[in-house]
Specification:
- Two copies of one chain form a homodimer.
- Chain A contains 15 helices and two strands.
- The first copy, chain A, is an all-alpha fold.
- The first copy, chain A, has a domain of 206 residues: Farnesyl Diphosphate Synthase (Orthogonal Bundle).
- Chain A has a two-stranded antiparallel sheet.
- In chain A, helix 3 runs antiparallel to helix 4 and helix 14 packs antiparallel against helix 15.
- Chain A starts with a helix and ends in a 5-residue tail after the last helix.
- In chain A, 53% of the residues are buried.
- The model of chain A has no long low-confidence stretch (mean pLDDT 94).
- Chains A and B meet through helix 2, helix 4, helix 6, helix 7 and helix 8 of A and helix 2, helix 4, helix 6, helix 7 and helix 8 of B.
Chain lengths: 295, 295
């Protein structure tokens, strides 16, 4: 299989759904124009859509075949986008550049940015609740998602990350940050794909393991790219982790050891889904690609 | 019926649920202590719990009898609390006092306050998804809630409110702000109670009308109290609307006319549920009480 073709195809489907969503928002008289603009600005900034892609690839790996996965997968991008908007705020990471463009609050102001994030988070659940799938399945998805992105997941990770800025984290604290800030959401995206495909518990467990490893690897590699990448490649200010004394794998383990850790995690993720057939090929290729990615 | 006894009883049930929820958070190892503290601080600050109470009263008015309404009703308080935390931020309303205590960001810092709000919003949906009720009913509740609190609801109202600060709003803009900032959520809380009770569409429509009128009245009366109340009574800085050149009913219509409008809305709300039996007595009493409330 050609991963690039696969990614492009899925990204196009996701972008199509997101475009229809933001188009609907703009036509919705009850939604203020400034709010739909602020939401669309960040949502349509052309990210990698990696969480939706993971969700779809896991869905397919577990035997799912319907288009119903699309809105569920796309809703994950609303949540990811809300978290970026809030994380970039002056009171948080205070970033000016995201995906090669000024951050949301630099364009729309802080109040609109906070509210655009709130609205995206809220609407993510609204989109899922509107999917034509068995309601008990959607309820499982929502439970999974709130666990992955709530106080014991992504939000918790973000808080510890900010609180330890400028302090030297212990290794277990760094692991907590990375697992929660990024890992649990990616793992959650993969589990949600499996749930939507009605995966057996054996398959769900294997995909969970895959998600755990690949999710952590993703953040370790992000740390590495903040040092080795350029703003043109990554679409964001690089070197900002060092400038802000962020706790990262390179800062704690060094660059070489961090790369080894990432490689080990990717190998573990591949081992977890060894028993899957060729429908898991995209998941395997994505994992391998992680080690080569530049953004 | 004695409204005071009714309110106290329901508030106690809601507070009991919320206490169990925050207790669970504190024990949850994956949730950072600072985050659960920030969430609990605002959630347990002892509000009126009026949205949950509306939800329960509508549930009962429509014939609901089970305890399953409690978590659903309590989840509304998580959303209300998140909106207060975010609204109080320096970039938003910049308030120092809420429910007679320093606002969340004054105690925990802005980053923790933003994240505590995000976590409460996320967990609200997690609580609903965990309720033992027919999944299709819970999906309807989530759809209703995202509509009431998303970009075309509460968040939209808050944005327009902030954007028009210092400018003189047109009457239709003020109506938009009040209907969306407060009205749709209260209407939504009432509709959610009706949905959980499996109300007939006739009953749902009547309760929707009641909710629309009483929800708008609630915000008009809030405006009035900001002028006529004291900080001791209302638990927040009074006179702040004038200080911040907020658009309010008194600022556009004058105090006397605003009181008349509120009274008219309350009468309309009572008319909407005229056909209901004695199980709607709490809804009627709450509506009448609105006109007398001091906080």
């Amino acid at each position: 299989m050609d991963l690039n073709t696969y990614l492009k195809k899925k990204q196009k489907l996701i972008d199509g759904f997101l475009k229809a969503y933001t188009g609907g928002l703009k036509k919705q008289k009850e939604c203020p124009a400034l709010l739909s603009e602020a939401m669309s600005y960040s949502l349509m900034a052309g990210g990698k859509r990696i969480r939706p892609v993971f969700c779809i690839a896991a869905y397919e790996a577990a035997g799912g075949r319907s288009e119903e996965i699309m809105p569920v997968a796309a809703s994950l991008e609303l949540i990811h986008t809300y978290s970026l908007i809030h994380d970039d705020l002056p009171a948080m990471d205070d970033d000016d550049l995201r995906r090669n463009r000024p951050t949301n609050h630099r364009v729309f102001g802080e109040a609109a940015a906070i509210l655009a994030g709130d609205a995206l988070l809220t609407d993510a659940f609204g989109i899922i609740a509107g999917v034509k799938a068995p309601p008990e399945m959607l309820i499982s998805v929502i439970r999974e998602l709130t666990h992955a992105c709530g106080p014991e997941g992504m939000v918790g990770g973000q808080l510890v990350d900010i609180m330890l800025e400028g302090k030297r984290a212990k290794k277990r604290e760094l692991l907590y940050i990375h697992q929660h800030k990024t890992g649990t959401f990616i793992k959650g995206a993969i589990r949600i794909g499996a749930i939507m495909a009605n995966a057996s518990s054996a398959k769900l467990n294997a995909l969970t393991k895959y998600g755990e490893k690949v999710g952590l690897a993703f953040q370790v590699i992000d740390d590495i790219l903040d040092i080795t990448g350029t703003p043109e490649e990554t679409g964001k200010t690089t070197g900002s982790d060092i400038a802000k004394s962020k706790n990262t794998y390179p800062s704690l383990y060094g660059l070489k050891k961090s790369k080894e850790i990432a490689k080990g995690l990717i190998n573990d993720s591949l081992a977890a889904i060894k028993a899957f057939d060729e429908k898991a090929e995209p998941l395997r290729e994505i994992a391998k690609y992680m080690l080569e990615r530049k953004n």
